[in-house]
Amino acid sequence: MAEHKIVNSFVGLQFIYNYRVGEYLDKYLDGLQSKKILGITCPECERVLVPPRSMCGKCNAKTKKWVTLKPVGTLKNFTISHVEIEQGEIKDREKPVIIGQIKLEGADSLLTAKIEGVSPKEVKTGLKVKAVFKDTTEGTLQDLDHFEPVK
Amino acid sequence: MDRKVAIVGYKQTKYLEQNENPRERMVMNLVQSLLQDMKITRDDIGTFILSCSDFQDGRTISECFMIPWVGAYMKDVSKVDSDSANAVLYAMMRILSGNYETALVVSWAMGGSEFRSPRVMDFELDPIYERQAKLVNEITAAALQAQAYMAKSKLTEEQLAALAVKNLRNGARNPLALRKKADATAKDILSSRPLASPLRELHAYTPADGACAVLLASEEKARELTKNPVWIKGVGFCQDTYYLGERDLVKMDSLQKAAKTAYKMAGITDPAKKIGVSELHTTFVSQEPIFAEALGLIPKNAGPNAVSKGALEIEGKTPINPSGGPQAANPLMVSGLIRIAEACTQLRGEAGEHQVKKTPRLALAHGQIGMAAQHNVVFVLGN
Amino acid sequence: MRNVAIISVGYNGRFVAKRPDVNIPELIQPAVANAIKKTKLKYSDIGVVVEGNMPTFEGINYPHLWFSDHIGAAGKPVLRISTGGTTGMSVFQGGYYCVASGMFDVAMVIGWEKHDEGDAQVGLIGIVLPEAFSMFQFGPDMGGGGTGMMGGLSSTGGASFQALSYLHRAKGTPDHIDKMAAQARSNAAKNPYAHLQHPNCTAADIAKTPMVSYPLRYGHTCPASCGACVMLLVAEEKVKKFADTDRVAWVKAVATASSDATTGNLVDGQINDPAEQAICEKIAAPKAYKMAGIQNPKKEIQMCEVYDGFAHQELMWPEKLHLVDNSCKAIDEGRLAIDGDMPVNPSGGVVSTNAIGASAMVRVAEASLQIMGMAEGGHQVPRRVKNALAHGWGGLFQFVTITILGDEPVKR
């Protein structure tokens, strides 16, 4: 089979998208900046959702009533991630990262976050964890840096 | 619904890291050979339903460049922007309406050579939260799902590896498959590159170039076109809520609901007994027992038992992915269509080396999109 | 075949250039709520949701996964259809087939775009550049939109070929396009949901705008809008149960056809220019009229909504749809106005409001509102609309979709 040539063409286009986060996530990010985790309540099923959004899909109701959640919770599920995806390339991480699903006290959904302060070999579900914020917060999701075991 | 719809013909390309032809020629050759097999021309096709993605093809409104190559020039065309099993569903509904007698579904992807599948999957994440948080991706989502299942059912890493071995061996019996290894062992799997626990590289799908075409027809037309039509007995589809943290990743509500609808339509009450073979769109092998449970093919938490007894093997009681499944080759959104074509092959007893032992009367084909299979489509096919 | 009725239309609000106050799901959600509000339906009655937009414009693959909860789709069957400019009507027709097939009794269809988050021109260049690659592989195409656009002229460049060719065929002048654009902007001022509203706009106002690509001026082009359109489709047996109005719009016909991207095809020995549109004139339109049982469209159809990304298309399409013999003459005679004998785009059309994924659906929505007698703000056609036609085009002048609505169902 003849192998045909490949033509490469550099396309100097930059796709820049300016995504608006909307009212609810905006408030959540403000909360993170002041080192608080905010959830929102569905008036019908009374679930407290983190991250917050405008609608509860279960009840098709507009969510109302903000709650400030305690920054502590339980690790319900986790994976030890050895790779990260960069522009579609699967690259090895320098060291494995624990990505956990955390049930915050008072919340009904699980929050996905990094877990530190415990080795991948020792981490277990059921672990009590607390939120650790960056020292200087900027109103981004990265303000909530990770969770670590409650001592 | 007083009409019945059948699959009367199907054709797949070989799945390759790089097809020798550009996308256009690959698709044209595929459609032409299907039409020749069926002894029809493109003028006999009532409607064309394409399934392709601008993100996969790297251009806006990609299908507009493919119209002549699928034979749809000056014809009736629409495009489903989702797993291609959804396109079969749409084609079926168009025939059921009585407006069309035949429909050709075509899907393609150059997932091996032209785009990076994980990149396309990353575009599925919402831009304002998950893309910014950089924690959830196709790997971590599937890993969290696998962990939750293993914690609940006590499936071991060795059993998970056995599933991957099964698919690599099945792939070796499928001439179209890309990744295959007849002598694969659990050791191969467990020594492959770790991605996110418990998942490793050989648990994952294999990106590939490839295309698939399926021809559907109304009952009357089907009997004209073929001696052995495969009937669409039941179909169901459903989408779950978005955030992983609000979903039961093991129970899989959306898959359960889709299956329930499909079984009801097909008049099946005991899928475990009635379904002879299943082709599931599993991005990672860990999804096989999870899906099988949600589909009612095996009892709850029976995954470990099914694996140890070899029930999911080609020769087993509940064969899953005899083709090797997406672990053998996965041109992303084409996968659902491949599953349907493979299920038809099994029902017609044409699968050759990967034919399940007892030619089944009913087969199940499944398609999905989204992180940890948020959106699911289930087809029950029979002859 | 089951008859299908449109029982409700919902917009999120007025279509505008920028919506910095909401994210994408929040933009769409009010349109869903508004559509449902006008019926006796509950969310749980909706059997299936069909959704679509132009995926690369916002850079999100399968966006319906994300706003599952916002559109009442969590735990429901959802189908996503996307076909370029025709997306909105392809989605609508998808919803139609969901019901007509007997699979579902109620379908909700959603078309949307939030242009302020992405860059539509960059997105559109994305369809032009591969054309250049295609040329390397298969040789240059035979003229028409593709080549023109590839030459760096963007979509307006491609459309300018079409406009010139159309004017030549119709023996019109660029003044006719000015007139048409002025009518569109004035009509838009009577539509509370339209984006570019210019009360009593005149041809002279349009003629003052800068030339983009002869004969198309800035005033002939469409804006990039943010907005969503939602419609609820119901099977004939359920209309009484769910509709909150006596006047619903019945779907009499749906049709679609596609040519290829280079607006010509050597394989079949046909070369056509972008103003020829045989897919519409010779394939889709006759098919739609046959399905609707319409023998004389000029007499039997009382208004149309055509997809006019550029003002000359508002002249061209009614001709291709067999509704007007010569639009240039017709606009001179005032026959295309809201109170004329073939009102074209009383809503102001796409040239005044273009949220691309919604635009072709808005054509159906506006046609249905005219039949229901519910067009707000003075753009309701004064005489009773018994049959209305909605049209969409997309791709590189190569897709066409047509929907014909009526005030009573077709007896089948």
Describe the structure.
Chain A is mainly beta and 151 residues long. Chain A has one helix at residues 22-33; strands spanning 37-41, 48-49, 55-56, 61-62, 64-69, 72-86, 89-104, 110-115, 128-133, 144-149. Chain A has a single domain, classed as Beta Barrel (OB fold (Dihydrolipoamide Acetyltransferase, E2P)). Chain A contains one helix and ten strands, in the order αββββββββββ. Chain A has a five-stranded antiparallel β-sheet with strand order 8-7-6-9-10, with no helix packed on it. A three-stranded antiparallel β-sheet of chain A has the order 2-1-5. Chain A has a two-stranded antiparallel ribbon with strand order 3-4. The N and C termini of chain A lie far apart (65 Å). Chain B is 35% helix and 18% strand. A nine-stranded mixed β-sheet of chain B has the order 3-2-4-7-1-8-11-10-9. In chain B, strands 5-6 form a two-stranded antiparallel sheet. Chain C has 412 residues and is an alpha+beta fold. Chain C has a domain at 4-118 and 224-236: Peroxisomal Thiolase, Chain A, domain 1. Helices cover 37% and strands 18% of the residues of chain C. Chain C has helices at residues 24-37, 55-58, 87-100, 120-138, 145-170, 174-189, 203-207, 239-242, 278-292, 297-300, 311-320, 327-332, 356-372; strands at residues 4-11, 48-52, 78-80, 106-114, 211-213, 216-217, 226-235, 249-258, 264-265, 270-271, 303-305, 387-394, 399-406. In chain C, the strands form three sheets. A nine-stranded mixed β-sheet of chain C has the order 3-2-4-7-1-8-13-12-11. A two-stranded antiparallel ribbon of chain C has the order 5-6. Chain C has a two-stranded antiparallel sheet with strand order 9-10. Chains in contact: A-B, A-C, B-C. Chains B and C meet through strand 3, helix 3, strand 8 and helix 10 of B and helix 2, strand 3, helix 3, helix 4 and strand 8 of C.
Q: Summarize this, please?
A:
With 383 residues, chain B is an alpha/beta fold. Helices cover 35% and strands 18% of the residues of chain B.
CATH architecture of chain A: Beta Barrel
Sheet with the most strands, sense and barrel status of chain A: 5 strands, antiparallel
Report the order of strands and helices of chain A: HEEEEEEEEEE
Quickly count the domains of chain A. Answer: 1
